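Support request, please re-run this one:
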Amino acid sequence: MNYFISLIIGVITSVMILLNGTLSETYGNYASTVLIHVVGLVSVIIILIVSKTSVKITRNIPIYFYSAGFIGVATVIFTNLGFMNLGVSLTQALGLLGQTVLSLLLDHFGLIGIKPSRFQVKKLIGLFFIAGGILVMTIY
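Re-run finished. Output below.
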């Protein structure tokens, strides 16, 4: 089930890049980023109300975990720029390569408090496939 959910995340991300990028072309990158996050805030408030879930702020985690909001804004801004210049597929593929490389480093060194998962040479095969796909997409 987790593999299927992860696959759906990729599909949703591609649709998000298309929708966000189109908004960015229409309203400009920064205004569209504000619109996107306002709609997201309203959506999550509705979900919280419907699910009768409350938000509990805890002081048990390091402060840098709260930077995820900034990272979300940066992700929207940069994917909008990528979309306008590269399209959905290449923006998504390059993003996947960046995510994969950083994930391997985070896992291997156990950064940001996660349990280390040592790098295995067989993971290079996946990186080569991603890089090869990007190369083909860029050339053709």
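The longest helix spans residues 2-27. The radius of gyration is 18 Å.
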